[in-house]
Design brief:
Blueprint: E1 4-5, H1 6-13, H2 17-27, E2 37-38, H3 40-53, H4 125-128, E3 138-143, H5 149-160, E4 175-180, E5 183-188, H6 193-201, E6 209-215, H7 222-233, E7 238-243, H8 252-261, E8 274-277, H9 286-300, E9 311-320, E10 324-333, E11 336-337, E12 341-344, E13 347-350, E14 353-355, E15 364-365, E16 369-374, E17 385-389, H10 392-423
Bound molecules: guanosine-5'-diphosphate and magnesium ion.
């Protein structure tokens, strides 16, 4: 009979999308994404599981991705997509893997004898303590020149960034944080592939999700293909934003067909590519885009330990005439604190001052937080990795070890060249 999309069901019963996916995994139901549809009997089974679990909404322990989502108004959210655009649904529902009575479960606890289908997992307190907290997604926007990357970022910044603090000067720092009703999203706002590729070239991956912007009146262009190739190479999930749908000559269907030729099949054609029509001019569709970013982040299940070892990446660095060297650091894990020592390459510095992307002074910053740091002696390059040291002595030791490693490599190279020259008789 009728089918329902996974995220619609999640909303309906008030659980997080990734929890819903866990249940489906437990049931052995196959799906491509949270927008895949599931059969009615599976829905019944899920509802039964949740009812017997006695737990509904998780609430509370999720930091960035709020599980309590208001039901979308009909016709506004992505849920308005026609339910008929069904994807191949999972075949038969199989029973969950059921450990034999007395057998140890994966957590090392003995399984109670009368294990039933409802004991997919205990929750929420039991799992919350062992799992790392969620972190906000870091998003990059790529696409062909003039397709509207800057306009899209500007629109989001204008409408979704909390008013800057009194006295704070909002300047370009390479990233900003958008607050949506469903959670925080961090945007890298040096659009274009340069930022993405230079960062990747240094071995760092900073973006969790790539938005590929394609103008509805222009469709796929050379840099669009490049952007897609970059996202694929980095194995970063893509969301396509078909921009400029306000234009009379907009032809979003052509864009979708062109994407299909690249083997990127939009959901409504039965594939798993999320495609969102938007207008950076009127703002149409941008709420949907943000919602899809949150949904994608939930599936990716992004987590980081704020109490773990600090790791970060330089987004960009510059010299400010008054302040000196300023660098935007993306905290990837751990927490950066005022007074910490940071090591970048063979240099170190002390965090003398830290501001958030709104220009407000802060004392510490956790995962997925871009911060502007004062305290480097030279301008670090974007994409350089940042680690922390307990004190100046430890920082100097890291730097010295790196310098000596580098000299070893250089010497080995010189030696091998000399041998080669001897062999060649020069
Ligand atoms: P970028 O090169 O990808 O950063 O593109 P820009 O954001 O600079 O936009 C290029 C041009 O397209 C500018 O003149 C924008 O005003 C225009 N533009 C961007 N988004 C839209 C849109 O949604 N609708 C219309 N009509 N024009 C847009
Ligand atoms: Mg631009």
């Amino acid at each position: 009979m009728s089918k329902i999309r996974i995220y619609t069901l999640a909303k309906e019963v008030g659980v997080e999308n990734h929890r819903m996916l866990e249940i489906l995994d437990g049931l052995g139901v196959q799906y491509k994404s949270v927008s895949s549809t599931i059969e009615e009997d599976t829905v019944e089974l899920i509802k039964q599981i949740l009812a017997e679990e006695g737990t509904q909404v998780t609430g509370g322990q999720v930091e960035d991705v709020s599980p309590t989502v208001d039901a979308a108004e009909p016709g506004t959210g992505p849920t308005s997509a026609p339910a008929t655009a069904a994807q191949p649904t999972a075949p038969a529902v199989t029973a969950p893997p059921e450990p034999a009575p007395g057998q140890m479960s994966s957590e090392g606890r003995p399984t109670p004898p009368a294990a039933t289908a409802t004991q997919v997992e205990e929750r929420p307190a039991a799992t919350a303590t062992t799992e790392l907290p969620h972190r906000a997604p870091v998003v990059t926007i790529m696409g062909h020149v003039d397709h509207g990357k800057t306009s899209l970022l500007d629109y989001i910044r204008k409408t979704k960034v909390a008013a800057k603090e009194a006295g704070g000067i909002t300047q370009h720092v390479g990233a900003f944080e958008a607050q949506t009703s469903k959670g925080r999203i961090v945007f890298i706002d040096t659009p274009g592939h340069e930022a993405f590729t230079t960062i990747r070239a240094r071995g760092a991956n900073v973006a969790d999700i790539a938005i590929i912007v394609i103008a509805a009146d222009d469709s796929l262009m050379p840099q669009t293909r490049e952007a897609i190739a970059h996202a694929q190479a980095a194995k970063v999930p893509m969301i396509v934003a078909i921009n400029k749908i306000d234009l009379a000559q907009a032809d979003p269907d052509r864009v979708k067909t062109d994407l299909t030729q690249l083997n990127l099949v939009p959901e409504e054609y039965g594939g798993d590519l999320v495609v969102v029509p938007v207008s950076a001019r009127s703002g149409e569709g941008i709420e949907d885009l943000l919602e899809y970013i949150i949904l994608t982040a939930e599936i990716e299940d992004l987590r980081a330990d704020p109490k773990g070892e600090f790791a970060g990446v330089i987004i960009e660095g510059k010299v400010d005439k008054q302040a000196g060297v300023l660098a935007t650091v993306m905290v990837q894990q751990g927490t950066l604190n005022l007074g910490d020592f940071l090591v970048v390459g063979e240099k170190y510095g002390k965090v003398k001052a830290m501001t958030d992307t709104n220009g407000g002074r802060i004392k510490s910053a956790g995962p997925s937080t871009p911060v502007q740091v004062l305290g480097f002696s030279e301008v670090p390059d974007s994409g350089e990795k940042v680690v922390a040291a307990k004190n100046e002595h430890a920082a100097r030791e890291i730097v010295q070890a790196r310098a000596s490693d580098r000299r070893d490599v250089e010497n080995a190279r010189v030696r091998s060249r000399l041998t080669l020259e001897e062999m060649m008789g020069s």
